[in-house]
Amino acid sequence: MAKRAAEILETEGVPLKAGNRPVKSENANDEEDFGDEFEDEFESEDEIIEAGVDGRPDEEREAEEKRDAMDVDQRTFIPGRDKLAAGESLSPDLSTYQMLHTLTTPWPCLSFDILRDSLGDNRKSYPAILYAVAGTQAESRKAKDNQLLVMKLSGLSRMDRTQDEEDSDDDSDSEDAEPILETKSIPLSSTTNRIRAHQVPSPNAAKPPTTYTAVMLENSQVLIHDITPYLTSFDVPGTILTPTQSKPVATLGMHKSEGYAIAWSPLATNPKLLTGDNDGKIFVTTLADGKWATDSRPFTGHTSSVEDLQWSPNERNVFASASSDGSVKIWDVRSKSRTAAVSVNVSDTDINVLSWSAQTPHLLATGADDGVWAVWDLRHWKPASAGSSLPKPKPVASFDFHKEQITSVEWHPSEDSIVAVAAGDNTLTLWDLSVEFDDEESKDTADAKDVPPQLLFVHYMEGVKECHWHPQIPGTVMGTGEGGFG
Q: What is the pLDDT of residues 83-140, one digit of tens each?
């Protein structure tokens, strides 16, 4: 409340008593009267205080404010659970993000992969730089517009926190930048179902690694490209890209139906690729002596489509598969029978995605069509002997927070308890499995009901399909959906 201006009294030549009110001079007329010129307006200082900030008693003012207050819904809005009313939209709370950027492409890119680069690990400085690849999903009547996009995103500054960090002005100039997207495109003949990248270190430290991409197309073909020249062109001025470099180094036609499952081996000496299709068949393709060769004998055993594949992070010959038949199978590529070593039915619905923990190799995460994602301890999975059956293993953790299908799940590359999950309810969520169920502090979820304490963060993203952690920028997650990248 602003202070009241000091009252100016014409008392020049009149002595003051105790520094406040004028008193009669000894030579003054006894009849003289010094009245208060403001007496009619305020009777006492006590009355001024009692009147409040607007001249009315506080009780009266507060009652009126309560009557006039807007009827605001104070409940916690949970994306994916609560529905927006007509005309409503969601805006992110920018104070909760260290970095947040969005971009759109001419056609949706519902599958992508993040590439490692030579800029160093554990990067925490801004603006950030990242490299990625993606495949487009153009309309069927414009299939020839489909492309493989090689992208460089630079100038990715962190959120402006000037008001909160006034003492950090020395860093702000170097961290503020305009985001820049650079792209190179390779034509594709069909829609991309899924794309994954693989890098082979160069024997010459002065040269960049060879970067391959594998694209599973809607027409059932698998195309392998060497995109190394495209990545070089971003950072080496004068690099010339020829039409020959846009052609695939291999076109694989062993699948008779389209598929979505694809995975590069992180441990194989020579590039090794797994692909699975809607017929339940899994093929392995290897680069040897400069030629890409596919073993004609598929791995079989699933009774429905193979939805996802993952190589073991610590055993080079072992991989896992997820299927719409509700099972997860563990395989050994050396098996002559081409059958699974272990098979477990983990859901009554489709298993859409899975992720093998690189930090804790006995943990496998799965995401199902009913919105449930779970974590399994593979040490409890045992092969069943002929004529016998084993009890169904139980997950070490299971969450039904999402009410639509799980579309992506991925372990953090360096934190063994952190998982990113994307779902059909337009949300990308982050989870910390180290939070205990009986932790009293973790049970405080305000008025939000049925929210697991392990849930760290909820990000709204329209039609989100995939999410990936950046392996070199801690805490950075990139997602893609019908509305673009974020």
A: 777 777 777 778 888 999 999 888 999 999 999 999 999 999 999 999 999 999 998 8
pLDDT for the residue 401:
94
Residue 194, C-beta contacts closer than 8 angstroms, at least 6 positions apart:
111, 135, 215, 216, 260, 261, 262
Residue 433, amino acid: L
Q: Are 274 and 261 in contact (CB under 8 A)?
A: yes
Tokens of 419: 């998982």
Question: Can you spell out the DSSP letters for 346-401?
Answer: --SS-EEEEEE-SSSTTEEEEEETTS-EEEEEGGG--PPPTT--PPPP--SEEE--
> How many other CB atoms are found less than 10 A from the CB of residue 418?
20
Q: Which residues contact 310 (CB under 8 A, 6 or more apart)?
A: 263, 319, 320, 321, 354, 355, 356, 364
Q: Whole-prediction pTM value?
A: 0.80
The one-letter amino acid at 355: S
User: From CA 412, how far away is CA 387, in angstroms rounded?
Assistant: 40
In the three-class reduction of DSSP (H, G, I as helix; E, B as strand; rest coil), residue 117 is classed as coil
SS3 145: helix
